[in-house]
Fold:
Amino acid sequence: MHWITRFSAVFSAALAMILLSPSLRSFSPAAAIRSSSHPDSGEFKSRHHSSSSFRESPIFRNADQCRSSGEDSGVCNPNLVHVAITLDIDYLRGSIAAVNSILQHSMCPQSVFFHFLVSSSEIQTLESLIRSTFPKLINLKIYYFAPETVQSLISSSVRQALEQPLNYARNYLADLLEPCVKRVIYLDSDLIVVDDIVKLWKTSLGPRTIGAPEYCHANFTKYFTGGFWSDQRFNGTFKGRNPCYFNTGVMVIDLKKWRRFSYTKRIERWMEIQKMERIYELGSLPPFLLVFAGHVAPISHRWNQHGLGGDNVRGSCRDLHSGPVSLLHWSGSGKPWLRLDSKLPCPLDTLWAPYDLYKHSH
Structure:
């Protein structure tokens, strides 16, 4: 599908309708939509939701060629694709849109098992919201992640949102999920998938424990403080490795290897050092870089077109990177549902809107 460089309301609406089609598996832009200035969306307030806040999702069924999902055999069925995603009141609208997008573009939606991670005391409310929005979604389970598991290890960050315990739940997937779950796709709540998730699931990790799109052109040194690079105790951490930045919002994880090599403990150790030495400024990302950078199975960039939230740049609307797109990720402070509600959306936010099931958003 070819894109027109100039952005217009008519084109946005047409493109959004195309993205709604379950027959669309991916799209390859010929030219990205141009950048434009935008008010800081971080000032917008999130809304709290009730069980009647969301429209009921359409029913999605497996195609004839799908292998049996074996819904009666539960989470241990080897034919299932496992996806982990967090549920939080402030990001619930994003999580529901992400799930909706995955189901809509999957040839075998009944073969996807969703593992929802919750740290709020409102766990029953959140579960009720998910089940009422996706009443035919049988393959799901809610997991409680106790904030005290990681609370004492969290240090202050550049954004308060990065300090929330649930942001660190991805570190504990190997402990939270059933031992029979050997692999999982972890996804952030601020993204949509516009391709069949099974393609990401089948990515070969080779000898590696995690796979993710890598960005080796990024300035890797900026993710750590000057003190880290000048301290002989730490600056040899990446010796013999070719470390590249990767975004932890989209990862394929081999849980069997993770458990075998106790990676959770390794991440926790770096978080303990951070509390004493202040070796980085961001939240949950740097410990992952310290443990895994240079040892990541590379995945195509199409699976994480990230930074659409503008990162931490005030008044920024981002472009798509060149190349095909299978997943759009609004990482950063600007979220599409907040900007759409403000009537001041960025151009690419209209691509998220068709997957939004919030009742008062249309």
Observations:
- The two ends are 26 Å apart (CA to CA).
- The longest strand covers residues 81-87.
